[in-house]
Specification:
Length: about 140
């Protein structure tokens, strides 16, 4: 399953993401992973969450980010949830490339029963229409 949490800066996306992370930790039987740039979530989420600072992996676009996520899943079959904060700070502001990555990740999620949730600082109208179905209304 893919979820997109959209909104402009300061709209509460990260707070909503943190709440979802904590809920996943309480209810999931698998590993919960949170990916971010830097270490801003370090004190906001449970120590049971595997925090990844994406800056340590030289990810510069959505193709390399897809490869990173695929490798993460291939290396740990116990992952049940992956949460990504500030998605466009990681892969750039290429909305079409993000949509292509999302299409490929959907197939991965369906095969492995993983839920992936992304926050993105943009409006619904900025994204290609084919991925609007993943937008979470909050």
């Amino acid at each position: 399953m893919i979820n997109l949490i959209l909104g402009l800066k300061g709209s509460g996306k990260t707070k909503y993401l943190i709440d979802n992370i904590e809920e996943a930790v309480k209810t999931s039987n698998g590993c919960v992973v949170a990916i971010e740039r830097g270490a801003t979530l370090r004190f906001d989420v449970s120590h049971d969450v595997r925090l990844i600072d994406i800056d340590e992996y030289d990810i510069t676009d959505f193709n390399s980010f897809y490869g990173f996520l695929s490798g993460l899943i291939a290396g740990n079959y116990d992952i049940s949830h992956i949460f990504v904060d500030a998605t466009f700070k990681i892969g750039g502001r290429d909305y079409d490339a993000f949509a292509k990555m999302t299409d490929k990740l959907k197939r991965l999620c369906d095969d492995s029963e993983i839920t992936m949730t992304f926050t993105a600082s943009c409006e619904k109208e900025d994204l290609p229409e084919r991925i609007h179905k993943y937008i979470v209304e909050r």
